[in-house]
Amino acid sequence: MMVALANYGCGTGGLASAGRSAVWSAEGELLAQLPVSGAGVAVVAEGKDGWRTKTRMIRNLAGG
How far apart are CA 50 and CA 22, in angstroms? Predict the structure, then answer.
């Protein structure tokens, strides 16, 4: 079973968050992971040549 974990990547209520949202394959291979802080997206797709992954961080959510 493939596993995707989305985690908050900014401080909240004066507390630090863990960040590092990630996606793992059914075999337990880490396919994509975001940094500890910030907002971003991880995309994972399986093709005939194996896994394709892409991560993109969003710098400024308020400014678009």
Answer: 18
Each residue's pLDDT tens digit, 12-34: 788 777 889 999 999 999 999 99
| DSSP per-residue codes, 2-42 | -EEE----S-BTTB------EEE-TTS-EEEE--SSSEEEE
Domain that holds residue 22: 3-58
Tell me, yes or no, whether 54 lies in a domain: yes
Whole-prediction pTM value? 0.74
Number of compact structural domains in the chain: 1
| Number of neighbouring beta carbons within 10 Å of residue 19 | 18
Asked if the structure places residue 33 within a domain, the reply is: yes
